[in-house]
Amino acid sequence: MKEAELRVLDRSSHPKTRDARILCHRDKTIHNDVLTVSTLNSFQLRWAPFDLPVSSAVDFVDGLNTICGAGDPRTRNGVCVIGFHVPQGDEQKDLVLSDPAFGSPFTIPETATKKHHSRLGLARCHSESGRLRWAPFDLPVSSAVDFVDGLNTICGAGDPRTRNGVCVYVYCCNASMINRCMYNSDGDFLIGMKFSVSIEEPSRGYVLEIFDGHFQLPNLGPIGSNGLAQPRDFLTPMAKFEDIEADFAVVSKFQGQLFQATQGHSPFDAVAWHGNYVPYKYDLAKFVVINSVSFDHCDPSIFTVLTCPSTKPGVAIADFVIFPPRWSVQQHTFRPPYYHRNCMSEFMGLIYGNYEAKEEGFLPGGASLHSMMTPHGPDAACFEGASNCFLRPERIADGTQAFMFETSLSLAVTTWALHGSGKLDDDYYSCWQGIRSHFRESWRPEDDEMR
Ligand SMILES: O=C(O)Cc1cc(O)ccc1O
Ligand SMILES: [Fe+2]
User: Fold this and answer.
1) Catalytic residue at 297?
2) What is the pLDDT of residues 315-371, one digit of tens each?
3) CA distance 218 to 350
4) What positions does the entry give for homogentisate binding (predicted)?
5) Does 404 sit in the ligand 1 pocket, CB within 6 Å?
6) Residue 376 annotated in ligand binding
7) What is the average pLDDT score of the chain?
8) Atom of ligand 1 nearest to the CA of 355
9) Any binding-site annotation on 25?
10) Residue ranges of the chain assigned to CATH 2.60.120.10
11) Which residue's C-alpha comes closest to atom 5 of ligand 1?
């Protein structure tokens, strides 16, 4: 692609540009021109050399697939040289923030990583197409809705018939499943195997389904055996039977559709079981949180509760990640999530509380989706606050439970999520509009006493 066009596309990713797709149409016009030429009644055509774009000299660093870095010589020593990724305070003075793009998952073996970190004068939170946010989904009020009837699909990828892919659902219900149970023939739900959901009050939640493989604990590597989720904290119910003769509805999810059959007795009639393909529950409060205790921002893979690995080492079909209550102690660091693009799709939900990167608009019972390689990060208020605050050890996320379903698959969003739910936030882009540039080309590290 010509440099000039690249620049146009780049400008489209400015946070204040509402819709990047408009500028991308320039690409399409090029194809239209080609079509016009082919309608000319001529078979002898010759072109003079096409003009090279007039551009200023560009310096290069050499090597293929080498981890290297370079700074614009107009800024002293190129700001990439600072020893960490997400600076705050004096370290942040001549730039806004690091803007990493991850071409490989956080969990890939080091030899296969593909990523770059750039330093920007203005945080870039770009194109609209891949960033969606939903207000809290409504609980039913007028009629009784149980878990099965209140289940709606938000997004997904793959196909249960080829046993590959994921699906994300929300459920909103106000009634227990009475004499009704459900099982899933397509894959594993993060919530259980054959089940009947009883509730005490109106209830709302999120479900992640995987068509291939099963959830397991992540490899702990250098963390050792005592961090993150501990096997002993996963609880599987003992066998408990009920001997009831009555009409029971058994709902099966098969190839993406729900089928219901009735039988004359309770399906919960197991008097004993053994094995390890069993439903379980886990109290997120038991998660042993690992993080940086010096400086810099660790990738959220440190908060992985469960993962479903693919056949490629380090590439997950889906990771279930939480942002638990914890101490935040990193020095010189912009502590909220960095601005970034990720080769994974990130679906986030909030069970209760406030997510630090977006105190406004991302609400309990709502959701957001940051699709593959779509830039995103903290809203303007969070950016200003965390850029300027005095850093002391502090508790964060108390009274909050936010989570992320992260998948290496590119998710399609359902019509229900876009239109039927009535909850899509058309204004999501505006949360980045107030971001100001802090860039000062003239800044030199020695200007600051701390360096
Ligand atoms: O986008 C998000 O808010 C989730 C997230 C948090 C974080 O600390 C680093 C990366 C990331 O994707
Ligand atoms: Fe993210």
Assistant:
1) yes
2) 999 999 999 999 999 999 999 999 998 999 999 999 999 999 999 999 999 999 999
3) 22
4) 346, 355, 376
5) yes
6) yes
7) 82
8) 3
9) no
10) 131-432
11) 337
